[in-house]
Amino acid sequence: MRRPIRLRRTALAVVTALALTTGAVGCGALDKALECAQTAEAIAASVDKLSQAVNTASEDPTQLTEALDEIDKELGSLKDKTDNADLSKAVDDLSKGVENVRTSVENGDTTPDIKPVTDAAAEIGKVCTP
């Protein structure tokens, strides 16, 4: 009977230590990582929509613009939250890719090259993976 009490105390001590360590390290870093991962997921979903929009652009070209707008929105959110050099570079690359696709669409291209966008979004996913 004595052993389970000691295990519970040990478990309680470990949980307490983890909680204190998280507090000492700062919830801000943990929150930032979580926000980065959530934003990366949202960007991936938006890039997927962009890919689908390119495939159906002849039916509804407005989907391309809507998908690009969604990516821009997520990028704006991510730009404000990062101080990571790798992430900043990937965000800049994605912004440039989105800008190039947007220019192509505005010039009448219904099948723009979105590879730079998908590549940069994948890099953001890598950098933001906890």
Give a structural overview.
The protein is an all-alpha fold. It is 82% helix and 0% strand. The chain has helices spanning 2-25, 27-55, 62-79, 85-106, 115-128. The longest helix has 29 residues, at 27-55. The radius of gyration is 21 Å and the shape is elongated. The two termini are 40 Å apart. Residues 1-25 have low confidence and may be disordered.
Low-pLDDT segments:
1-25
Principal-axes geometry comes out as elongated
Strand content: under 5%
Number of strands: 0
Q: What structural category arises from helix and sheet content?
A: mainly alpha
Distance from N terminus to C terminus (CA atoms, Å) equals 40 Å
Helix content: over 70%
Largest sheet: none
Order of helices and strands: HHHHH
Alpha carbon gyration radius: 21 Å
Mean pLDDT: 75
Number of helices: 5
